[in-house]
Write a structure and sequence with these properties.
The structure holds 2 protein chains of 2 kinds. Helices cover 39% and strands 23% of the residues of chain A. Chain A is an alpha+beta fold. Among the domains of chain A are: 134 residues, PHY domain (Beta-Lactamase, 2-Layer Sandwich); 154 residues, Histidine kinase-like ATPase, C-terminal domain (Heat Shock Protein 90, 2-Layer Sandwich), CATH 3.30.565. In chain A, helix 9 runs parallel beside helix 14. The longest helix of chain A has 68 residues. Chain A is rod-shaped, with a radius of gyration of 48 Å. Chain A starts with 9 loop residues before the first helix and ends in a 5-residue tail after the last strand. Chain B is α/β, with parallel strands linked by helices. Chain B has one domain: Response regulator (Rossmann fold), CATH 3.40.50. Chain B is built from 5 helices and 5 strands. A 5-stranded parallel β-sheet of chain B has the order 2-1-3-4-5, with helices on both faces. In chain B, strand 4, helix 4 and strand 5 form a beta-alpha-beta unit. In chain B, helix 1 crosses helix 5 and helix 2 runs parallel beside helix 3. The chains are: A alpha+beta, B alpha/beta. At the A-B interface, helix 14 of A face helix 1 and helix 5 of B. Chain B: InterPro entries: CheY-like_superfamily, Sig_transdc_resp-reg_receiver, TCS_response_regulator. Chain B: It comes from Spirosoma foliorum. Chain B: Keywords: Phosphoprotein. Chain B: It holds the Pfam family Response_reg.
């Protein structure tokens, strides 16, 4: 030990299966299976057979019994049977009498050697008591009791079988620290029930041995172990492996640990759950105490019964939970399929996501909304959590019973959310389902301070000592919830698949709808052209024939009839204009934007020229001020400004001196143009209808118009992600402003 | 032999055209055909126009929206035959759809005119058309 460098894993490195010693209450001989030649003996062998160990090494196994009353061949025959059957378990123990004393011989074969171990036999009368206890234990396990009762009674039975003064059932936590969950002890001893032991008390390699050797006895911690001697030909780098030995000596560290605890004999029996160490039955005696092989086997049998019961009970418990979650998951799936509405199915139906786990709160973050069920953190906290999750490497789900340790802001809401189970629906959209478990403030009482002290020995070397104090040492564990079970995690992972299936199907439906919309648009497109063509053709005929009538027969018509024909002609004009505008309107919604930098000066001057031609009979002035360029579709922008300035020209017709001012300015992120006139204006109360298709304002009735022009303008602005607003007062004029973003995304 | 061939299946438009042509009081001859396939037969000397040699019109005025063989198909057929490859064809349509205009040009029209929709405006237009296509425009006579 001292030769190893000091660090806290020292105990983990101790090669406890090849310590080179056995406990001194027994004797060991190892032989070659083919020749039965002795290759190892324990130093104390002379006590048993009266021959010095050095004289035995390299000799045939018969030599062992030379000084006894037992013929050597008896042993050879026994070995022959074992070798022939390739099994030793059924033969153990062999009761042998050597020099008037009865011994139990236990034989096993491991790593190419046969190991023979003699240990004292106990009182034969105990066998009967043990039989009764075993029968009782079997009944106990079969009857349905609480786990605590079962363990407590097991502790009592084991105490009766082996006669120690303290028997504890010690359960391992997920981090391998242990807790005493049942205890049977003599009255004068201090109780250890409820105490926690740090994981380092039973290092990893010791736990591995506990899985192989289910029963382990230290009969006298104070005795001096007996050294194992090897044949001179035996390679020194291959020490005898004592993994399966019943006499294996104890590590000096462990002896010191026991001494500090005031224990001189100890026995441990492993409790297994699904091939893993679930706990130990740990037995202590204040004085040396030997437990014979049959009693140890009886105790082992009781522990195996208990292991089986544990497995069965835990499976039952898990199955019940799993069944419940599966049923609720099934219901949620049905709700999802039936409603096709993720939010309704998960949080607004009889069974909700809260029924999927033991959580006390749940939340759904979907479509940028937060839905809460039960006890949850605030909405803002949940949103922050949804922002944080994509930064972690969570891909499908995250599970923690110590959220504040992963995500410090969670400390603020640990009373409802110290534990988090989350499934990811969409990382991009930050969509999640969360389950929360509240903080469980645990008061963990350790058996002594779990942080092993490093001490400096007299020769100046550092070493780690087993603790010397086992006085209760209390630690408060915060920021921790009860753990998430596999059944809970399994249930929500399945739920995630169900939700994603529905979401994906909806996305596909939207895609199909989009395709159909595309087709519908194309049909509408064709329809618009056809309608405009088919309507315009008869309209042209009406107009042309009216003109012909007026022209060729006008002289024969009285003025009233002539006026009526003129009305027909005017009506066809209005209808043509309406048809043309509707066509424009529908085109503006769909045609692709081809954005480029538009020379506004040139564009506005062109519009001015065109308007001035039709306004030559009145006083109209169009002033063009600053003209910063904009990025836009030139055709659409031409349409937009033609409509705006055309409107201004129209609604200033009655003004004696009409003035229209067009001015542009550029800000940091947009270009704003305003078109101001001194026309009839309008009441801002009617402004809400301004851009509605076919809506015209009351005081505009006397002016020709279709009610489509501004709707087209609005559509063009929308296509450019721009803005349009206006200000007006009746009889004082109107100002329209349009803003184009500096960069347009089509 | 005719100067202008107008292909139009709407009787009103054909009537208005005839009235206006007469009103122009110019020496140009014209004829109106109400189907694209007949016009193609006429231009290419097939069907009932087989073995009736005649010279090509100086201008073909073509409505695009025809029942049966469409205006664009008439142009395509005319352009695929040596005799009519260079005969001037002007599309004369109600539609101002960029798509229609493009497909007409692709088929090989010489010009595209949107019907004005008014008697007077149509009269003015026809007068200009005749001036340009019948008098100013130089032609390739393929016989």
């Amino acid at each position: 030990m001292n030769s190893l460098p000091v660090d806290l894993t020292n105990c983990e490195r101790e090669p406890i299966h090849i310590l080179g010693h056995i406990q001194s209450h027994g004797y060991l001989v190892a032989i070659q299976p083919d020749t039965y030649t002795i290759v190892h003996v324990s130093d104390n062998i002379a006590e048993l057979v009266g021959i010095a160990p050095t004289q035995l090494l390299g000799q045939p196994v018969q030599a062992l019994l030379a000084e006894t009353s037992v013929p050597g061949n008896t042993l050879v025959e026994l070995l022959n049977v074992g070798c022939r059957n390739d099994s030793w378990d059924t033969m153990n123990p062999n009761r042998v009498t050597l020099n008037g004393q009865v011994w139990n011989l236990i034989i096993h074969q491991y790593l190419g050697l046969i190991l023979l171990e003699w240990e004292p036999s106990g009182d034969e009368r105990n066998a009967l008591i043990n039989q009764q206890l075993l029968a009782q234990a079997l009944t106990e396990v079969q009857s349905s009791r609480t786990l605590v009762d079962l363990l407590q009674n097991t502790a009592r039975r084991v105490k009766t079988i082996i006669g120690f003064d303290r028997v504890m059932v010690y359960r391992f936590g997920a981090d391998w620290h242990g807790k005493v969950i049942a205890e049977e002890k003599d009255d004068d001893l201090e109780p250890y029930l409820g105490l926690h032991y740090p994981a380092s008390d039973i290092p990893r390699q010791a736990r591995e041995l506990y899985k192989i050797n289910l029963v382990r006895l230290i009969a006298d911690a104070t005795s001096t172990p007996s050294k194992i001697l090897s044949d001179s030909d035996w390679p020194s780098d291959r020490p005898l492996d004592l993994t399966h030995s019943v006499l294996r000596a104890v590590s000096p560290v462990h002896i010191e640990y026991l001494r500090n605890m005031g224990v001189q004999a100890s026995m441990s029996i492993s409790l297994m759950y699904r091939g893993e160490l679930w706990g130990l039955i740990s037995c202590h005696n204040t004085t040396p105490h030997f437990v014979d092989y049959p009693a140890r086997q009886a105790a082992k049998f009781v522990s195996q019964l208990l292991s089986a019961a544990l497995e069965f009970r835990k499976d039952e418990e898990d199955k019940t939970n799993l069944l419940q979650y599966t049923q609720n998951g099934q219901r949620l799936h049905e709700q999802l399929i039936f409603t096709d509405d993720v939010v309704r199915a998960l949080v607004k139906s009889p069974v909700t996501v809260l029924n999927m786990t033991e959580a006390t709160g749940a939340a759904l973050v979907f479509n940028d909304k937060v839905y809460q069920l039960g006890q949850t953190p605030d909405e803002a906290d949940i949103r922050a959590l949804a922002d944080w999750l994509p930064t972690t490497d969570t891909e499908t789900f995250l599970e923690t019973s110590q959220l504040p340790n992963l995500y410090p802001p969670a400390e603020a809401f640990r009373d409802v959310g110290a534990g988090l189970l989350a499934i990811e629906l969409s990382r991009e959209l930050k969509e999640y389902v969360f389950w929360f478990k509240p903080e469980q403030i645990q008061e963990v009482t350790w058996a002594g301070n779990p942080d092993k002290p490093v001490t400096v020995t007299s020769d100046g070397q550092q070493r780690i000592n087993p603790r010397t104090s086992f006085a209760a040492w209390i630690e408060i564990v915060r920021n921790t919830s009860s753990p998430w079970s596999e059944a809970e995690i399994g249930a929500v992972v399945k739920l995630r698949e169900d939700i994603l299936q529905v979401v994906t199907r909806q996305a596909n439906e939207i895609r199909l709808l989009n395709q159909r919309l595309q087709v519908a648009y194309e049909e509408l497109d064709a329809f618009s052209y056809t309608v405009s063509h088919d309507l315009r053709t008869p309209l042209s005929s009406i107009r042309c024939y009216s003109e012909i009538l007026l022209e060729e027969y006008g002289a024969e018509l009285n003025p009233d009839a002539q006026a009526l024909f003129q009305k027909i002609i005017d009506s066809t004009d209005r209808m043509r204009s309406l048809i043309r505008h509707i066509l424009y309107y529908s085109r503006m919604g769909r045609t692709d934007l081809s954005t480029e930098k538009v020379d506004m000066r040139q564009l506005l001057e062109g519009i001015r020229e065109e308007i001035m031609v039709t306004a030559k009979d009145r006083s109209l002035q169009i002033d063009i001020g600053e003209t910063p360029a904009i990025s836009a579709d030139p055709t659409m922008v031409l349409q937009l400004f033609t409509n705006l300035i055309g409107n201004s020209a129209k609604y200033t017709r009655l003004t004696p001196k009409a003035v229209i001012q067009v001015n542009g300015r550029q800000t940091d992120d947009e270009v704003i143009y305003s078109v101001e006139d001194n026309g009839i204006g309008f009441d801002m109360k009617q402004a809400g209808k301004m851009f509605d298709l076919f809506k015209r304002l009351e005081n505009a009735r006397q002016f020709e118009g279709t009610g489509v022009g501004l709707a087209i303008v609005k559509r063009i602005i929308n296509r450019h992600q721009g803005k349009i607003w206006f200000h007006s007062e009746p009889d004082r004029g109107t100002t329209f402003s349009v803003a184009f973003p500096l960069t347009t995304h089509a | 032999m005719v100067d202008v061939l107008y292909i139009e299946d709407n009787p009103n438009d054909a009537d208005i055209f005839s009235r206006l042509m007469q009103k122009l009081n110019r020496p140009f001859t014209y004829t109106v055909m109400d189907s694209g396939s007949e016009a193609v037969d006429y231009l290419t000397g097939q069907g009932r126009y087989k073995n009736q040699p005649h010279s090509l019109p100086k201008l073909v005025l073509l409505d695009l929206n025809l029942d049966g063989l469409s205006g664009v198909e008439v142009v395509q057929q005319a352009r695929s035959i040596d005799r009519t490859r260079f005969v001037p064809i002007v599309a004369f349509s109600t539609s101002d759809s960029p798509r229609d205009i493009k497909s007409a040009y692709e088929a090989g029209v010489n010009a595209y005119i949107v019907k004005p929709g008014s008697y007077q405006a149509t009269g003015t237009l026809l007068s200009k058309l005749c001036d340009f296509w019948l008098e100013n425009n130089a032609r390739i006579d393929t016989k």
